[in-house]
Amino acid sequence: MKLMELLNNTTYKVLQGEADINVTDIVQDSRKVKPGDVFVCIKGSNMDGHDLIPDVLKAGVTALVVEKEIEVPIGITVILVKNTRNALAHMSCAYFDHPAKKLKTIGITGTKGKTTTTYMVKHILEQSGIKTGLIGTIEVLIGEDKISSVNTTPESYTLQKYLKQMVDAGCEAVVMEVSSQGLMLDRVAGIEYDYGVFTNISPDHIGPNEHSSYEEYMYYKSLLFRQCKTGIINIDDDNYENIIKDHTCKIESFGLSGKADLRATNLVLYRKDSILGIRFHVEGTMNFEVKLNMPGEFNVHNALCAIAICKHFNIQIKDIIQSFETIKVKGRLEVYNTNQPYSVIIDYAHNEVSLKELLSTLKDYNPKRLVCLFGCGGNRSKLRRYEMGKVSAQLADLTIVTSDNPRFEEPADIIADIVSSVEKEKGNYISIEDRREAIRYCIENAIPGDIIVLAGKGHELYQEIKGEKFTMDEREILKNVFEQLK
Ligand SMILES: CC(=O)N[C@H]1[C@@H](OP(=O)(O)OP(=O)(O)OC[C@H]2O[C@@H](n3ccc(=O)[nH]c3=O)[C@H](O)[C@@H]2O)O[C@H](CO)[C@@H](O)[C@@H]1O[C@H](C)C(=O)N[C@@H](C)C(=O)N[C@H](CCC(=O)O)C(=O)O
Ligand SMILES: Nc1ncnc2c1ncn2[C@@H]1O[C@H](COP(=O)(O)OP(=O)(O)OP(=O)(O)O)[C@@H](O)[C@H]1O
Ligand SMILES: N[C@H](CCC[C@H](N)C(=O)O)C(=O)O
Ligand SMILES: [Mg+2]
Q: What is the pTM of this model?
């Protein structure tokens, strides 16, 4: 493909050579270049691509895209742009022939609920025969293909490649998580979303390599509403006005508030044997009753958000109703059917805020006992241990302290950190280092009416110990324990 065609939507200056040349591929990782490629130099958090120019020249690249003036041998084309990440995104759109324009695109941003809502949308759309690709924290789904994710929002070239694969696989729509880092680092530049969606915002992702302040975090999330046609927002969030500040799209809202265009009313928690869920009424631009097969009041927001999106796809109400009766999102308030008079839930809550929200919403079901099993990741913030220990001691009737990816730390040391704060709060607890044994203990000692939460691992299918990932699926562990109990 001609380099100048790739640069069609980018402002650039030719520093050396010619833009009217053929290039084979666009690459931003020196370890992946091949002769004939154009190398885009990106300054990252660990490495500056401009410093790797001698390596890529040796590997035979034809052209370089840079954001600072550099000197290289004659014969190589050098293109100067203001921002190489942005140029990479626009060049990738062109290279894959603008796949986003061939799909109905839904981008979801917010601190919590993105992953859950994407799966709800996919489930509803596919229930009505609309083939839908998905991109997010857990995986990328393209037809029958599943690719594990590295980032929630992939880097632009990879993202455009996935979108092209979706078009080729016959998808009509894509639903994807758009992280604030994705917006900040131009991973989604060049896409004009049909629907930009805001779930909620609270302080998170602030620190080295992420955002410098809450204001900055909010600012980057707000950018989605300058690159979509319709914005669908949670009007119950205190910060929604900051998020849609300077928006360029049409705005629609959802929420529990009477001002929302699409509202949920008459929320009723339900519990039948081991199954937990919530019923509510949808009012406003649509009107019907939903029985959601997932517990938790915040899932009403996620479900309402999914309905507000799917409304644009002319879905029949009966398909929406049916989807919510069968929905299951891997590791997000995933109710494991125990066939016993107590409930077991697998969830991804792995910090103070999510654990607090999770335990609080489950308490509304008036369990006989709320049992919370969790550990904390090794080589991660130590603060998490004290905070999660405190929350569990305050809200759960029994805390089972165990392991969650100890990585290079001693599991017993992590457990001791957590226990110190559970004890400080006078929480009722026991500790069992081996997570399998801890789960077994919970089930063997369950009493009717209990809600048992396995928190922190969610969709993860491994336990990481000393650099090695050992297979571990909490669903399998539960299945084995229940079989042995028969
Ligand atoms: C801080 C950050 O965002 N890092 C991401 C970023 O790496 P980076 O820009 O720092 O890259 P770098 O390693 O400094 O390298 C700079 C450049 O040199 C190149 N390079 C590097 C080494 C080399 O030998 N040769 C070479 O050419 C690199 O390809 C790159 O072009 O680009 C990588 C490839 O696209 C990402 O995988 C990586 O995400 C890391 C794993 C990460 O943890 N990111 C987090 C902060 C993140 O993005 N999280 C959000 C939200 C998660 C959520 O809440 O759900 C997400 O969307 O995932
Ligand atoms: N709307 C919501 N509000 C608050 N908490 C939520 C909401 N939805 C889900 N949660 C809780 O947060 C956890 C993560 O939810 P989910 O994966 O859907 O969010 P996310 O925005 O994709 O998060 P991440 O940035 O961690 O990928 C869930 O396991 C649940 O405990
Ligand atoms: N993105 C988070 C996920 C944590 C999940 C938990 N299971 C753990 O490993 O601590 C992290 O890497 O800190
Ligand atoms: Mg996510």
A: 0.95
